[in-house]
Amino acid sequence: MKQIFFYLIKKIYFCVVIKYINMPTVLKLLGMRFYYWSREHLPIHIHVKKGDAEARFALEPEIELIENMGFKPHELAIAEEVIRDNREYMIEHWTLYFKNTKM
């Protein structure tokens, strides 16, 4: 039983570490994490997570909500404002990350 427990702990830890390695964080603000996957696709977009809520916004050609899973309207408005204020930085971060990667 003890071996199974440690196996499960190692497995969970490994999954959590791998999950965050593959999801570079661009910004953390107001309890929200703004990130993208390391194997992303165009158009340039950003994921937002807060608790169990997640959303995805396009950054180009303009900021647009693509998907919402659990954010309340006022939280989406805050997330969009943060994105609007940091859009250039987020695009630059994405571009530098994928500079040598074909998408």
Q: How would you characterize the overall build of this protein?
A:
44% of the residues lie in helices and 26% in strands. With 103 residues, the protein is of the alpha+beta class. The chain has one domain. The chain has a 5-stranded antiparallel β-sheet with strand order 1-2-3-4-5, with helices on one face. It is globular and about 35 Å long. The termini are far apart.
Short description:
With 103 residues, the protein is an alpha+beta fold. Helix content is 44%, strand content 26%.
What is this structure's SSE topology?
Layout: H1 2-21, E1 25-29, E2 32-35, E3 45-50, E4 53-58, E5 64-69, H2 73-97
Antiparallel strand pairs: 1-2, 2-3, 3-4, 4-5
Looking at this protein, list some descriptive labels.
single chain; globular; alpha+beta; 103 residues; 5-stranded antiparallel beta sheet
Q: Tell me the fraction of residues in β-strands, as a range.
A: 25-35%
Domain count, please report it. 1
- The strand count comes to 5
Shape: globular
The span between the termini is 45 Å
Mean pLDDT: 82
Proportion of helical residues: 40-55%
Radius of gyration: 16 Å
Largest sheet: 5 strands, antiparallel
Order of helices and strands: HEEEEEH
| Physical arrangement of strands within the biggest beta sheet | 1-2-3-4-5
Q: In DSSP terms, counting alpha (H) and pi (I) runs of 4 or more, how many helices?
A: 2
What structural class do you assign from the helix and strand content?
alpha+beta
Low-confidence stretches: 13-20
